[in-house]
Design goal:
Blueprint: H1 49-63, H2 74-81, H3 83-117, H4 119-127, H5 132-166, H6 177-203, H7 207-210
Helix pairs in contact: 3-6, 5-6
């Protein structure tokens, strides 16, 4: 401290981060110097917290009458480090839910359109011995191909922006490919669940009606 503080060293703590993980570890001095009293850290039991806080306030005002008593819980302070991330997370969840809902509507509409366009083809396939499973697979495989193409385009873009965002932190994880694989599998499941109704409806339809002369 450039000679401003002279006191005996009574212990050295293991390094710990007392700031946001955007910052690296910084030197920290923990001392008992009345001229530097600004705050006190107190470990509390969670039982009867209200009366405990009142007792602490009384002792503080008696000991340091010139300092305003204000308290803040450690978990709230840590949460404030990442307030922006928490807010962005909520927004991302909302926008993701809206995007998935709109995508499902689009898939359902496209599946309905394809079912109407290929109704005679489905009828002929059933007459020739195609099973319900074959018909459902016929509809599903085309959507799976489209999802695979979208996945191949979106994955590198998502990885790039996620990696750039993580660069703002001194301590960060590596983006695992398992995250993208899980996202791709979830997208396929949602898509299949969306189009399954129309696919099964077309598969179980009476081929006589679909092949009837218009």
């Amino acid at each position: 401290m450039d000679g401003l503080i002279k006191c005996p060293v009574v212990g050295v703590l293991k390094d710990f981060n007392d700031r946001s993980l955007r910052q690296t570890l910084s030197p920290l001095l923990i001392a008992t110097n009345s001229t530097m009293y600004r705050q006190a850290s107190i470990k509390l039991a969670t039982t009867n917290i209200s009366s405990t806080m009142q007792s602490i306030k009384k002792i503080w005002e008696q000991t340091f009458p010139n300092y305003v008593y204000e308290y803040r819980f450690l978990d709230d302070k840590i949460a404030s480090f990442y307030k922006q991330e928490t807010q962005l997370s909520q927004l991302y969840k909302i926008f993701a839910a809206i995007a998935i809902f709109l995508s499902c509507l689009g898939l359902y509409g496209l599946a309905s359109f394809m079912a109407m366009q290929r109704i005679k083809e489905v009828g002929i396939r059933k007459v020739l011995g195609a099973t319900t499973r074959n018909i459902v697979y016929l509809f599903s495989k085309e959507f799976i191909v489209l999802i695979a193409i979208a996945f191949a385009i979106a994955t590198p873009i998502a990885w790039y922006y996620m990696n750039q965002w993580l660069q703002g932190y001194a301590y960060r994880i590596n983006v695992s490919w398992l995250v993208f694989l899980a996202g791709g599998l979830v997208a396929i499941v949602i898509a299949l669940a969306t189009i399954s109704f129309q696919a099964i409806k077309a598969a179980i339809a009476n081929p006589v009606k679909s092949l009837r002369t218009e």
